[in-house]
Amino acid sequence: MPLCPSAPLPLAFRLWGVAVLALFLMMxxxxxxxxxxxxxxxxxxxxxxxxxxxxxxxxxxxxxxHASLAGPMxxxxxxxxxxxxxxxxxxxxxxxxxxxxxxxxVCREIASRxxxxxxxxxxxxGHGNFDAxxxxxxxxxxxxxxxxxxxxxxxIPAARFVVANMTTCSGASVPALSQKxxxxxxxxxxxMEKNQTQMGRFFVEAFKNGNADSDKNGRVSVLEAFNYxxxxxxxxxxxxxxLKTEHPVLDDDGDGKGQSDPGPENGEGFLARTTYLDTGVxxxxxxxxxxxxxxxxxxxxxxxxxxxALKYARSExxxxxxxxxxxxxxxxxxxxxxxxxxxx
Length: 344
Prior knowledge:
Rossmann fold, single chain
């Protein structure tokens, strides 16, 4: 049962909230270079399709996502690896057949080139299965378990990971994929949800044309993408008059328990709310690049993170203190935005 906003939160979470606030209020503005194309990697993998129509659908997801990453989000094309069950469907796009061996090969290649502060985005389409004990990702050849999948992916020594598992039964993979500093998005809440999922196409759609940019800051966070896609899933089943057979969840605090509505009350969503796949520059400000604007953008992103940290620590301070700190940060943010838009 969800906690009432006025109810006291568990001690461990309250201490965590205070620590997060202290950390981010002390953080210096970070360099935009840390979010440049050189510091971001992507693995887009679709396993056994099992059906020609599904194969076309999964390939469309991969194509659209690749277009967003290599286009507006400005990923280095050499940093985006596509694995598919039939490479002949698009030889110019698909790097490898989606076998376990090739996934391991891609991870070794990234591991040899990645920086410790880089971000790795993994998008998984296709099918999974669950036998009440073990999740497996269905690939051509040997199927890796969730634990083996985590071991393969996290052999890449990067600090930041976003893993979006859009397969059937994907909820059963969350406990194994969940770790501190890792964001895990799953199309289903458990391994018992075995019907074909819709979450993948809506998650891909979230990054197109700023569809999921709910706070209108010119960027789409992982949490915004999740919320957008989860809402679209709900809408899909409602308009089709179908029983909802998938319940998307997100885990980013390392506890292995995905939540359908991430927020301060359940401790999920802070990392996803402040993590972006793009270059670190709002869409409306890209292409400017003067030293003054870079400094303002870096400051803006730092203030945004401080605001989110403050929200998560709200329960640990008097309401008046919270409102005073929030007002100060919002005024600071508005001032920065005004300076940036003046030069737009």
